[in-house]
Predict the structure.
Amino acid sequence: MLALAYLALLLVLPVGLVLWRTVEHGAGPVWHALTQPNAIHAFRLTVTVAVVAVVCNTIFGVGLAVLLVRHNFPGKRVLNAVVDLPLAVSPVVVGLALILVYGPSGGVGRWLGDHGMRVIFAVPGMVLATIFVSLPLVVREVAPVLEEIGTEQEQAAWTLGASSVQTFRRVTLPAIRWAVAYGVVLTLARALGEYGAVAVVSGRVVGKTQTATLFVEERFQNFDQSAAYAMAFALAVLAVVVLLALNLLRPSEET
Amino acid sequence: MAISVRHVSKSFGTFAAVHDVSVDIPSGTLTALLGPSGGGKSTLLRIIAGLETPDAGTVEIAGTDSTALPPQRRNVGFVFQHYAAFKHMTVARNVAFGLEIRKRPKAETRRRVQELLELVHLEQFADRYPAQLSGGQRQRMALARALAVEPEVLLLDEPFGALDAQVRKELRTWLRRLHDEVHVTTVFVTHDQEEAMEVADEIVVINNGMVEQIGTPDELYEKPANDFVMSFLGPVTRFNGTLVRPHDLELFTTPEPDTARGRVLRVVRLGFEVRVDVTTVGGEVWAQVTRGEAEKLGLEAGDEVFVRAARDAFVVRTAVGV
């Protein structure tokens, strides 16, 4: 009962109110707010950044999980701790750190700038920031499952002649696929909703480096509440669709 | 020789799991690696399979030095205690795995899988998933999967260890029959002496990472090399500073040559056999006699009795602590 009240106060009520505020004047204003060029651009940018971050973090996340669970090497514990760092560090700090390295005054940033590549106050920086903050999610979903399935199936595959790559593709990957899927969903949700780190490195140029969350904040500050609520609503719908898709795809008999 | 292990050693940290072991396993035999848990027999089997790398020594499989070969290229079949079934594949796909990796033609793979499923009596379960099978069925599937690639040797690591007693007994009889049918050189690890005695042509007794004795079940039972082998392979009792099988002790109600005087502590009837516990000057000893003998002697607790080892009894001088 208490848990339900807790959920209602913290989750259902605020989200419900956003929904209510969005649609209280009908669908027209919502549509209008979401189809203005800046909104469309912000939404597209968010999706692009999120997709790139998800792809990178899925590939490297699975790789890191395999490295941490299946291999022993010096510095493993340090690496294990470093993977969790993005969860502990405030996203704003992440943004500032990225500016230090990739900004015009940072060594790497200057070198890249000399070669015509801009990272900070541009899309690459926003992708980097998003990858950084969502890095542990796939690793932390996949690692315990790898631990649990153990090494015997993989060893059985080896004795049957399968190479490491074949073993990974035919045995390991199918065994961890739901963990990967959850990691992807969590990463996607985190990437879609990221604000702090992206706000710092983006420069918030409307129509250029403004993501959906930045759009919500900027509209809200400019007393354009209907646009802010409309975009917030769109982000929430996207998150719910992703979660629902995962639950529908997942066959019921599997665990 | 199908397998030739030469001076193999393997340590985990400071623990010497296998120490300077040499074993030859002839082609076509069914051999048991027998010993107590933690004695190094599983490690030895995994070294033969290439799943562990020995610190020293060589492993030859079918005349090829395989010491440096990865498990993929040793042409061994391996069966794990906990089946290692590919959970996301059907029984048929599990069995077909090695053949698919080897890119055999589809029709051939299908035919071979069908044959193997018939061999292990799982043909009606081809489309099930491992989770829908019992432990014994899963282990038979694992066996079919290992046999599918026609391995040079078949290695089984405590194959029946996770099964309950009834299924265990059925499966080991079945394994023996299967081996007589398929004739692939087979090595299995077990800590159960009864299992080893019943199934194996030859037994390698391993303890503390070393080979204690190699021989047929009869040789090991009748002529154990030392007190460890003797006490591991069957019941023993200590009499006059030697180890002797309890059924090799003779009991008399009157003094006879070479007998020791004692007193009956307990008479326990276990169906056909009767266990008689006796205290003698040298300590407590127990004898196993048939029901008929026990009735003839008419022994009761407290009676005086005279004990000696049978003339042809095999005895081993005891080391301390057995």
Observations:
- Chain A has one domain: 34-254.
- Chain A touches chain B at residues 152-153, 155-163, 166, 170-171, 174-175 (CB under 8 Å).
- The two ends of chain A are 28 Å apart (CA to CA).
